[in-house]
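Single-chain item
Fold in token form
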Amino acid sequence: MMQDDNQPKNRPSSDAPQRDFYAQVRAGIPALLRQWLALGQADNTRLALILAETARVAKVGAPDETPDGDTFEAWCQAASGEDIPLWAPRTAVFLLNQMPARPVPQSEAEACAWAYCWLRNRTFDSVQEALQALPEHLQEPLQQALQAAWQDQQGYAWCDNN
């Protein structure tokens, strides 16, 4: 299961659309990391270091250790994000959103992962506020995925309080 230091370990399974969304998120995480690999302009070891250090400094996550280049490459080539710590794609979203290259998701699954991480990285009062806070070039490509991510987040919000 994908490691998420901020999410309950056992997600409720009573709502199939939300389960399907989360499955899309997991499936899209390697593609999201491949965007960072392709645009990061450094070798795998350096890109993994930048991810881990940025996660720590930006308080996007708290990696127990810095992955090596081989681990990062394995994450990028994984069939799903089940075994990838959530700080990695959350940090990739943080970094990609700031790049002048203006990357966008290349698939529905990647868009789901991107939107999920966007909502996990910041606090918003509404889905509209979250959409408007995105860089302009991401607003249209992430609109549907962000709506699904918002519903997922709101559907499981009660888990954090119990």
